[in-house]
Write a structure and sequence with these properties.
elongated; nine-stranded antiparallel sheet; Dna Ligase, domain 1; 11 helices
Amino acid sequence: MNYRTTLIMALVFCVGLAAVLLIKNQDTKKTEEKESAGKLLDIDKAAVTELILEPAALHFIRDGENWNIVNPVETDGDKATVDAILNMFDWAKIDRTIATDSVEYGDYGLAPEAGKMIVVHDGKADTLFVGENTPTGSFVFARKNGSPEVFLTTTSLQTNIQKTLFEVRNKKVLRFDVNNIKELVLTNRRGKIELLKAGAEWMLKGKNNVSGDISEINQLTNRLNSETAKEFVDENPADLQKYGLTNPVLKVDLLLGEEKSQATLLVGKALNDKYYAKDDSRQPVFLVDSAFVNLFDVSVTDLRNKNIVNFNQSDVDKIELAFTGQTIVCEKDTAGNWLVVAPESGLAKSYQITLLLSNLSSLKAEEFVDDNPASLDMYGLSKPQVTCKVYQNGLLLKETLLGKEKSGKVYAKTADNKSVYLVSKDNAEKIKPKLEDILDVEKDEKTLESENM
């Protein structure tokens, strides 16, 4: 094949390819034009700056990524709800045209219309008028400004136009970023509880700044962050006393961010199964569920960390357990096997060691007795009945002491903490295994028989 022939074939290929691409682009353009023509409104939702819904006369104005309501009250809009209304224009279609004469509008509930939506975008406004549902309820009759045509479209248009103020407003009882909390002060009928946040940890502010229960406290902050008002009862209250908000039954103060800005929730009188409440930075009084209020009816003890012994079980390679006059010592060898090294030598039952460490790490305080004991004698902890030490690479990780019994409970403490606790007697007994329970005699005998063969 000579150069000329090759060139001609290349030109034919390029022309053919260009023709294919042109046809494809034309088809794509036609498809896009057809889809655009069938849309309820062909708009870019990101370009919408205002939205008006009637008959409720709800007026929204965009504020960056959020929406403000300026009528019938001035408040924050619920971003997710307003965005969902605008998302409708991504998929909502005109099903078919029913009439083109304005004389017929009354037949479809459009003279006057049942409601309308005004969408302001790109410096102009589009208005959608909605009438009655079709007899089957599958569609709704509607029309646009600037066109006489009555058409069928999704009933979602009707649903969105008929939104109420309550549905579209921000209903959060307190507005804050849960990750910005630095301090939480809770005042309820039990008293005042002050909590400090340090990373992922919580501390109860006080003389000793004892550790807080992360799970319990996070449950409160997460619920506070997600809780919504059940009803708005007074947009501009002249008297907070009648709602019990001048002397609240519950007050939650949050200090947020490095600047320690404050957010405060007040909860007042009960009304049936709800309570009057107010964000101290906003005007409206609203109602919250009693279940939400009851969640905050906690004491210092409820929010205190009840785990007495904290360590990573997989780090432990040595255990010393002393009680009733004897000390049991177990060590992990280089292969990861547990051995009993005192008072006898032999293989240990690994599951028993695992169970012992699990029982030790899950030991919880049932009562907080004394955070600054003058003496440990009265608790039987100066000469404990049980001492359990766990080590890693020769370093003491934790030393746990068990003392006297009191009413089915046992006094306990750790060597690195002044606090004295009461723990369940049943749980205390679980960290006192007998030597014969730990020694794996059967495995030792089988090993000996194998060596003698």
